[in-house]
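thread: overnight batch results

M.L. [08:02]
morning all. the overnight job finished for the chain we discussed friday. pasting input first so we're all looking at the same thing
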Amino acid sequence: MENVLYEYQLNITDYLWNLIPLFVGVGFLYNSILTMKAGDREKGWEGFITSFFKIAGFVVAPIGVGIFLLSTIGMSAEHKEYKEKLANNDVFIVEGYVENFHPMPYEGHDTERFEINGIHFEYSDYYITNGYHKSASHGGVVKKNGQYLKVKYVVEELEGEHENIILYIAEITDRSGNACDS
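M.L. [08:03]
and the structure it wrote out:
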């Protein structure tokens, strides 16, 4: 029997991180507009700082908006692709016992990783990506060595290296409903 622990879905909180460059850009633009209204009364060093912030807002704002748009569009396209692959079962599947489980500390500064039948998975709560990335220390479903899991995943190439993106995790149990722990 399969007990589904995770199935890929849109995680809106991941998209909220995309708002940071947008807010920074808009904040700089707002500051530029305020300093323009104030006029150029200051001379010397204070005048230089005022002029710098006037210009910076008009440079940083489009960059922040651009980063926001590119990251949101990219994540949305990837989301659509992953949903289609999962629905069509166009994914890799590995089933077996969790081995070499390395939990991520609660405060971060590391990644969580494990293997099943030699297939390596690695993720972090602090690296925003589509796919499974919730560590055991923050309530994730992969908790220890010996869990018997079925994992559906896709492989993404990034700078010459591949990353296995988890789209589905199920715990396999015996007929009486007991988890197949070692």
